[in-house]
Amino acid sequence: MRRTPLLRPLPAATLAASLLALLPAAPAWASGDMGCYPNATLRQPAYSCGGVPILSPGNDTRINAMLLMTESSKLAQVFPDPKTVPAADLPNRLIVPFLYDFSGWIDIGQKQPDSASDASDASDTTDANSAAGGNGQSSTYADGEGNICRSVASGDKAFNDALNAANALPADDAARLRAARATVAKACAPGGADAAWTKPTGLKSALGQQFATYLDGAQAFYRQDFFPATSAFAGASHSADPWLKEAALYMAGRAQLNAAQANAFSADSTTPERANVTKVSLDAAGTVFRAYLRVYPHGRYAASAAGLQRRIAWLDGNATQQAALYDKAFAHWSPGASNVPLSQLANELDSKLLLASNVDASQIQSPPVLATIDLMRMRAAGDFDSGERKPLMLAELQAQKPRFAGAPALHDYLLAAYHVYVDHKPAEALALLPQSPSTPLDYFALSQQTLRAFALEDSGQAGEARQLWRTLIPLAQYRLQREGLELALAINLEQAGLVSEAFAEDSPVRNAGIRAVLLQHTANADLLRAQAQNQATSGALRDIALYTLLYKEFTRAHYAEFIADLALIPPTPADALKPFALPRVANNDGYACPSAREIAATLQQSPSDPKALNCLAEFVRANPPALGLGEDTSVMLATSPTPASTAAGTAAPPAPATLGSAPSQFQGKAYQRMTSYQSVIAMTQAPADDRAYALYRAINCFAPAGYSECGGNDIAQGTRKRWFNALKSAYPRSKWAQSLKYYW
Questions:
Q1: Could you say which of 138, 229, 408, 542 would form a disulfide bridge with 220 (CB–CB 3.0 to 4.6 Å)?
Q2: Pick from 106, 152, 104: which is nearest to 130 by CA?
Q3: Under a CB-based contact definition with an 8 Å cutoff, are residues 232 and 216 in contact?
Q4: Residue 226 in contact with residue 218, Cβ under 8 Å?
């Protein structure tokens, strides 16, 4: 289920914002969602805009539905392919969680006044497949919702092809019928509903008359005169011509379906007003489509007819039948035989059933559809959730067992998920899950084993979970499985203080994005130094390791080590490393600074040197703490606020660990520029330029909104006012006093 994220202000340097750079780029959701900050974890108790390749309460319901209802091999149709990520981008991509492009999926707010079905097949080439949406010229078609006239051109071709194939049809009759067919399109022109229609005359054959009857039905259909259209199509369906017989039968059902829903949608409605559905026509449409599928189980319109049955169930408010039909549609989906992409089918399920505010889970008999709803109802409250759903209770889940008689392992999984995500009883979860992974490791088996690993971690068995992650990684064969497992193992290692194992020669953690985060947020100096010189790894990761090593040494007062490690910079350094090799620190405010080496040497000899302190701050102001991945502090990582309660109403545990959230193993405290400025400000005997510049910079840290990105947000506004007055009074002729007009 989609929920529009609540936008909240975030510090500019949070890893949350930088995670967007680590995820595959994707357009915004069709519903207008913005500000996606998915957590860097495989475990998602609350709704997340980043998907994971396991059954999870935090997944979008469409992702869970596809995982539950489709063969694992077919999900390559929709899941991002990690192999398509350019090698240069790999250090900036976690791959999992993944952003999915929802922009081509139906928006639940899209009005559907006369649409034939979410399952209309855009590849069909006849009136028998047009998505009805009212009169007009538009032929747009987006994920099953479209205009009734969109298939006029393709219908021309199909009709004319049928004429060509009808060997018994006189050439003169065929010519008259082609000409008549060309006039059908006029019904879709502006004002075309009132256009006169004359059935072709002078036809010499009975077959020609039958084709003319079909055209009568098509003309009435495009005029939205559905009862005459039904009558004409029914008459044409008795023809001996194979195309005419099949197409007319199908179109009779289409005409009745449109008649049924003609008054079902008000001007501002996105759901049908079922009291206004013409039930007799709806039932007639269902009867015709069932007849069509009996006669033509593999007919040219069979997939579309099956999709129209789903629409009939939706219009009828029959959730039980809807769920059963979706179950069947997903189970039999294939690129060649199905009339919609898999993602579109998932979106149809979402918009027509799962998003319904009045959906009653007790009506759902399909195990995968019910499981999708159950997982959604297990979600903890979070930023992206409006909290409209009714939480799932354990007794209700246990009572569903008879409905999972055909899928007992799925019911066990749901119970185990409840114990992991909701009531936090990992021992009970472990008792419900397979002790060893099945092979091949499909997405359901992966879900079972990842849940088992989560339960092991929650029960204090992190080592056993770590071994399970290692066991699973070689079994991964479907898209995103390995990437998700590597992420889980990396988090486990990081939390256990074993980051170096992720970089061992035989480590299964290969994802460059994961390694980049570990290097920049958790690794100690020895590991960074080793990776900076590791020729077996990529140049980008070596640069990240060396940049991080030098940056942290420089800003955490490891000056001797910093000066020594500058020798690791190659003669022709990458752009990222150039700030450490420049002869001076660039400054646009007229405050000159020497090279980073000279600053470090001065601070090594005199830690309170005012100019060196200012210049250290200048270096940090000009250069990020990490190569595009965010602030170097664990409290800034992309973790969701801990929910106050879970679906069961019990106190929630801390939010799951995310990649980069463990304390850094690098010795020393993370640096903040305000510390240097305050030190220099306190030196009343410091050189005038140095103290004036420190005052100027400290005040500007709070521009323009009173929030400091330099640290020191506990500094009162009155203190900033005193700084401002001191700058203006003590150093009135300095360029910085003259340029500064406000304090914040």
A1: 229
A2: 152
A3: yes
A4: no
CA 478, chain centre distance (Å) = 18
- Rounded to two decimals, the pTM is 0.83
Predicted pLDDT of residue 194:
66
Q: What are phi and psi of 388, to 5 degrees?
A: -75, -25
Beta bridge partners of 594: 584
Asked if 282 and 315 touch (Cβ cutoff 8 Å), the reply is yes
CA dihedral 370, 373, 377, 382 (to 10 degrees): 160
Q: Are strands 584-585 and 145-146 parallel, antiparallel or unpaired?
A: unpaired
* Residue 239 backbone phi and psi in degrees, to 5: -65, 155
Residues in the chain: 744
Among 102-116, 237-251, 394-408, 493-507, where is mean pLDDT lowest? 102-116
Closest CA to 355 of 69, 51, 1: 1
Phi, psi of 369 (to 5 degrees): -70, -45
Provide the phi-psi class of 182: left if phi over 0, else alpha when psi is between -120 and 50, else beta: alpha
Query: What does the pLDDT read at residue 23?
Result: 38
Nearest residue to 344 (alpha-carbon basis) of 606, 656, 17, 102 = 102
- pLDDT of the residue at 11: 33
Give the phi and the psi of residue 594 in degrees, each rounded to 5.
-80, -170
- Taking the CA atoms of the chain, what radius of gyration do you get in angstroms? 33
For 75, residues 6+ apart whose C-beta sits below 8 A from its C-beta are 66, 67, 342, 443, 478, 479
Return the amino acid letter for 634.
Answer: S
- 704 prior amide bond cis, ω within 30: yes
* 3-class DSSP assignment, residue 503: helix
Q: What is the DSSP string of 259-288?
A: HHHTTS--TT-SS--GGGS-HHHHHHHHHH
Spatial CA neighbour of 474 closest among 444, 439, 526: 439
Instruction: State whether residue 584 is helix, strand or coil.
Output: strand
The partner residues of 593 in beta bridges, in order of sequence, read: 585
Rounded to whole angstroms, what are the CA distances from 522 to 159, 210, 310, 693? Answer: 67, 77, 52, 34
| Residue 615 to residues 577, 595, 608, Cα–Cα distance (Å) | 18, 9, 12
Distance separating the N- and C-terminal Cα atoms of the chain? 43
**DSSP-assigned letter for residue 145:** E
Residue 735, class by beta-carbon neighbours within 10 Å (0-12 exposed, 13-18 middle, 19+ buried)?
A: middle
Which residue bears the tokens 């250090």? Answer: 91
Q: For residues 55 and 416, is the Cβ–Cβ distance under 8 A? A: no
Take residue 282 and report the two structure tokens written for it. 């709806």
Alpha carbon distance 94, 683 (integer Å): 46
- Residue 49's alpha-carbon distances to 26, 371, 386, in angstroms, are 11, 20, 14
Between CA 56 and CA 74 the distance in angstroms is 19
pLDDT, tens digit (0-9, with 9 covering 90-100), for 510-554: 999 999 999 999 999 999 999 999 999 999 999 999 999 999 999
Q: Is the pLDDT of residue 114 over 90?
A: no
- Token pair, residue 31, equals 């519903």
